[in-house]
């Protein structure tokens, strides 16, 4: 509850947000914050962990009805992932710009029991998102030219390419979720059966 109330304040004020303002937003006494977190930095670290964590977006993807057409399912998933990335970027950028440096104590990589190297948090998040998208693709497995795992990886790669990048004097105009799904499912040729002279 405290982290949820703090996230929009952090997005707006960065590390400059006061604990009294956080307490008012959460509807609690300021002392309650310090019974849960040892200091404001620990609370800000918890906000970063919540912003970069994928649990919320995984729940959104899992709620997409599997009886919807594939393009609709993937568009809904794309919108959920894009909203997650925007929120994450806003929170992390705001904190970084106001001087907060996350995590003096980073959690260790999760040990593996299958002999593979340990996975870092970013890898675990990517794999969890990929697996959620694979579930959305399963009803149409027979219609796919690639495995659902490969299509899901391509889907996420296209989504991550929507992140802002410097453009030569022009505003970055990323593909909309609908355009992205159209390219993923149908390519970029007007007639995919005729590759032309390329």
Write the layout of secondary structure elements.
Layout lengths: L1 H12 L5 H8 L3 H7 L3 H13 L2 H8 L7 H28 L23 H17 L10 H13 L16 H10 L12
Helix pairs in contact: 1-2, 1-4, 1-6, 2-3, 4-6, 5-6, 5-7, 6-9, 7-8, 8-9
What is the helix/strand order?
A: HHHHHHHHH
- Which geometry do the CA atoms define? elongated
Instruction: Provide the helix percentage.
Output: 55-70%
Q: Please, how many domains?
A: 2
User: What summary fits the major beta sheet?
Assistant: none
The number of E-state strands comes to 0
Which parts are unreliable, with pLDDT below 50 for 5 consecutive residues or more? 104-109
Task: Kindly describe this structure.
There is one protein chain. The chain is mainly α and 198 residues long. The chain has two domains: 1-52, Arc Repressor Mutant, subunit A (Orthogonal Bundle), CATH 1.10.10.60; 53-102 and 119-164 and 177-185, no CATH class. Helix content is 59%, strand content 0%. The protein has nine helices and no strands.
